[in-house]
Amino acid sequence: MTEAERPDAPSTTDRDFQAVRDAKYVLLTTFKRDGTGVGTPVWAVPVETDRGTGIRIWTARNTGKVKRIRNGSRVTVAPCSMRGVPTGAAVEAHAVLLDDDDTRGTLEALAARYGMAGRLVTRRARRDVADSAGIEVNAA
Question: Using alpha carbons only, how large is the chain's radius of gyration in Å?
């Protein structure tokens, strides 16, 4: 019996989402109103929250992905290369925009996970989160 055949084995979606949580880069695909997907490679940190097992992402508040998430929570996520080439299966998910406190926590977690590069990229945003948006993504 293979691991996938065991009754207590995680589902394909669970395994695929775990691969996303473990990935250094994640391809976040948000959807326009007409259904067209727009993918962006992002850094992410795994989290456990009251919404469940997920990842958190940081971006600037005025980006297209934030506007698209405001219009609809459906997203897909997949592990990817630094340039956004998928390296694993895409997982259907839901995204929510975070409040300033959770965004600040996301920035701190990203700085810790990505070392010097993470600290440099998030430095300004950690001082003033007014122009930042945190996003939490959980498998659908």
Answer: 15
CA dihedral 84, 90, 93, 98 (to 10 degrees): -20
Q: How many residues does the chain have?
A: 140
Q: Is 26 exposed, middle or buried (0-12, 13-18, 19+ CB in 10 A)?
A: buried
Gap between the Cα atoms of 39 and 48, Å rounded: 24
User: In the numeric block, which tokens belong to residue 31?
Assistant: 């959807």
Q: Indicate the pTM of the whole model.
A: 0.87
* Extents of the domains making up the chain: 3-139
- Cα of first residue to Cα of last residue in the chain, in angstroms, is 28
CATH 1.10.287.1700 fits 3-139, yes or no: no
Segment 74-108, tens digit of pLDDT = 999 999 999 999 999 999 999 999 999 999 999 99
Neighbours of 79 (CB within 10 A): 21
Q: Distance between CA 57 and CA 103 in Å, rounded? A: 9
